Amino acid sequence: MTIMAGSSRLARVSIAAGLIAIAGAAPARVPPERAAELGGKLTPMGSEAAGNADGSIPAWTPYTKDGFKRGDNPYAADKPIAMITAKNLPEYERFLSEGHKALFRTFPDTYRIPLYPSRRGAAYPGWFLDATKANATAVELTNSGHGFCCAAKGFPFPIPGNGTEVMWNHIMRYNTRGYRGYVGAAATTTSGDYVIERSYFELAYVYNNPEAVPQTLNNQNLYVMSKTVAPASKAGIAYLLHVPLDRVAQSTGVWSFIAGGRTLRIGEVGYDNPAFEGLMTQDQIDMFNGPLDRYTIKLLGKREMIVPYNSYRLYDPKLKYKDIITKGHIAPETTRFEKHRVWVIEAEVREGIKHLYRKRVFYVDEDSWIVLGQDIYDDRGEFWRFAESHSINFPQVPVMINGVQVHYDLQSRRYVILNLTNEEKELIEYDWKEDPKYFTPANLKRFATSRR
């Protein structure tokens, strides 16, 4: 995946029918009788196990499969149950984010949402789910919510009591012990032109490593090295990041290497530092990567929404990038949308703190805790940008990932798409393992200049 660093600031919007407001910040630890619902009334991840009242959202049925291959699509036989267009938008807008409604307003003749039957197959290893259940009665926030204690694996807050805990579940979700591989990204012009920026990365997690225990974390979350390999004008630039868990107590270590130069330590490049021609900020990478210190975060509740989900076609090696990247927005026929329950998080910049974005609203999947969408407002309070994550389940691992992400700038009518793999010879290698001692400034030059 595309790796950088980050954080942000956010929005107050009206939430449509179906939203259950939750006020205040409940204690992190939950009573044993409530935790006992995990694996019963609640899934092991903390979501509602049952479907919704009208059956449009099914019960959770984890999907795992040995021998699952690149290009496989377990739901290939599904047909759309509706095609949402600008003309029939009023029938569905109560289930849509402000960002998706803005896309219809901006591109009424070409933007569409193919709505498919909902499938809830999110699956994770047993040891990870066992750790998640144990966390419910053991984990609590520390340092005013900028960190947490008493866990080394699992979703830290499967039964959240406030918005900060929900966002921690996204940031600390399971992505295997590590992964490596090539990805492509593209920043489009208003005419739809683009140049693929191809990168290679190697990433290892400290948190959510099966062998990890709280005593061995040392406030570390992950290590990563990434380098740009194309186009030629950017090739040779490489970065090393040491990302802490509590990034307020300890800053992220960032080193850079430029071809023909030397390794230098630089300041943290998160928050609203620009990325991809200034069309997005560093803290938008991975939809949101923290820290949380600049924002007042509210948990508004849970809402039924139409969101990108099970987007296997966007990862199909039979597709070329030109099939996906089109003028104004990605090609609708390459996407899949479903109705799911999401947590709604409203975040607003703290008084006296500056950020490029004045407001954001996050929509977090109840099953995977992945941020599936976010509405972004400018300093005048006007709608500006929207980001969406096209998640899929890799059932052979198993893990839910939010690989392909699209970040729209509605004011400029441009967008950035991240983590494309269709034209790569191989898919990302998940559950890749490497010792933290590998991720050193001394090793960055070797990484940057190696053929791989």
Query: What's the tally of helices?
Result: 7
Give the overall silhouette: globular
What is the first-to-last residue Cα distance?
16 Å
Largest sheet: 14 strands, antiparallel
Could you tell me the strand content as a percent range?
25-35%
Structural class: mainly beta
DSSP helix fraction: 10-25%
Q: Give the C-alpha Rg.
A: 21 Å
Oligomer: single chain
What are the secondary-structure elements, in order, as H or E?
Answer: HEHEHEEHEEHEEEEEEEHEEEEEEEH
Strand tally: 20
Uncertain segments: 1-26
Mean pLDDT: 92
Please describe what this structure looks like:
By secondary structure, the protein is mostly beta strands. The chain contains 7 helices and 20 strands. It has helices at residues 32-35, 98-106, 126-135, 163-171, 214-217, 321-324, 441-449; strands at 82-84, 113-115, 140-142, 147-149, 178-187, 196-205, 220-230, 238-244, 253-257, 264-266, 274-275, 280-281, 295-308, 337-349, 359-365, 371-377, 383-394, 399-409, 414-420, 429-430. The strands form 4 sheets. Strands 5, 6, 7, 8, 9, 10, 13, 14, 15, 16, 17, 18, 19 and 20 form a 14-stranded antiparallel β-sheet that branches. Strands 1-2 form a two-stranded antiparallel ribbon. Strands 3-4 form a two-stranded antiparallel ribbon. The protein is globular. 49% of the residues are buried.
